[in-house]
Amino acid sequence: MTQPTERSLVDQTLALDPHLATWGAYQDRAQALLDAPLSAETVPEWVQAWSDLSADMGEARTSLSVYADLHTGDDDARTRLMTFLETVMPQAERLNQALKEKLLAVPDFTPAPDFAQAYRRFRDEADLFREANVELGVTHEAQMNRYGVITGNQKVHLNGEDLTVPQATQHLERPDRDARERAWRALADSKQGVAADLDALMLELLRTRRQLARNADLSDYRAYAWRELDRVDYTPQDCLDFHDAIRTEAVPLAATIVRDIAAALNLDTVRPWDYHRGALLDPHRREPLQPFSGGADLEDKAQRTFDALDAELGEQFRTLRTGYMDLESREGKMSHAYCAFFPRRAVPFVLMNVVGTANDVNVLMHETGHAFHGFASGQSQRLVWNTWSPIEFVEIPSMGMEFLTLDHMSHIYTPEERARVLTQQLQGLIVFLPWAAQMDAFQHWLYTEAPEDVSVADLDAKWLELDRAFHPWVDWDGLNMDHMRAKGWQYYHIFRAPFYYLEYAMCYLGALALWRGALDDAPAALARYKAALRLGNSVGVPDLYRAAGLEFRFDRAYLRGLMDFATAKLSDTTARH
């Protein structure tokens, strides 16, 4: 079911009318919006027409982008996407700026409550706009897309086979230490094969991002990103303080978890192949769980899970199964996992690379949580700008679903296996926090402190410095592999989503608090969860957290309280199983 057919859903969408990938498909409607007389009374109808036009352009972009990620070796697919980005998107950006200026000039207009947030964002975005950044933005998009081209066809030669990165990575979970080391070294060799290309790409991106900031009369790219990402509820210093809180509260706890596992396995030290944050080793030397066989089996088992959790969510997952998922890992497909969105249809699309592991189950729960967010906000909000939510909340629907589904997987796991999964999930959350802080700290340095003539060697050196601070439990001594360790910054988000990472840590705290509430009253917690999803992007971040029954906090005291809760649940789970 998940294997793409010769003419996949995305193919069919584009084949309906290739004209939709050109500016000519939207030009007349755009001009009508520009020409229409506008008053406070006519704004709502005019804004809805603008939203509909934006949704149609977003629909075409999603189709082109997803198809290119499913077929990274298809030059025509990449060309179609780049043609759209180079011809339609600059025109759309200029159009949106003109429409924002037209709207903001309407006298005596007071936005309705469900439009107030978008109206405020329009004002801020209009102030940030610079014509010089329109074409530079096309260059930036093309550069970011090259990351997928470089890594999409990456192969790992292991045990006489050529594997995809996800297929090779699952070997890092094996109890046989020699097998893990072989897999880790094979992955290191594969990564080294693309490292030089990614080095060069990063330097290009850095120059482009700095120029974007200069064009906007801002001191650095962090200042630009802060405004572009609409971060109005916290400051860069708050993030730096969060890094310190994680270093103080989470790093020692993570180190204890990893070292206790190593001690149980009689490992004298934790080598890089003994630590994989996505799936920590099993202290009892059990083989990795293999809870499903193939994408279709995973779909069936996930369907039963969501049906048991909630009838409405179960129906939404059935919709995904009608052609809005591609789960199998294969050559020529982007190796990441994500959830995209078709805004006109208000239907998401889930892309994954499953290989049969428990982590795959968890990732599907995660990405489907995003999909539920898309369904809920897309069906509840009349304006395209009010779908999804700010990025400080957007991972709570996904991370929360990882926890909310745990009690509905008896058809996937035995009670002992479920306890094992819960243990790994809680441990994984704790060890993830240092990684998130390290990723964010690297970017704060890169975009505010790195010298103008920063070199690849400087990037590597900074990453090594941060890695020693946030991951002190990994022993690299005597391996002569610092050149590989230093490339940890060559990660998807650094290239494709700058400054989008610490939000994962914020949202993990929110998801943990959501689960804590669900343990007391599961129906009420789920009802709050769904209500918050329906709000989409129509309210601010603190209001979204409140709707979900949560606090928007990431200070040291709050972090310590949640770490104490997670530790207590780990102890309880271990004692009972």
Automatic annotation (TrEMBL):
Domain spans labelled Peptidase M3A/M3B catalytic: 172-562
Record keywords: Hydrolase, Metal-binding, Metalloprotease, Protease, Zinc
UniProt xrefs under Pfam families: Peptidase_M3
Cofactor binding summary note: Binds 1 zinc ion.
GO biological process: peptide metabolic process; proteolysis
Molecular function as annotated in GO: metal ion binding; metalloendopeptidase activity
Superkingdom classification of source: Bacteria
Alphabetical list of InterPro entries matching this protein: Pept_M3A_M3B, Pept_M3A_M3B_dom
Gene3D superfamilies xref list: 1.10.1370.30
The protein's required cofactors: Zn(2+)
Family: Belongs to the peptidase M3 family.
PANTHER family cross-referenced by the UniProt entry: PROTEASE M3 THIMET OLIGOPEPTIDASE-RELATED (PTHR11804), PUTATIVE-RELATED (PTHR11804:SF48)
Name by which UniProt lists this protein: Peptidase M3A and M3B thimet/oligopeptidase F
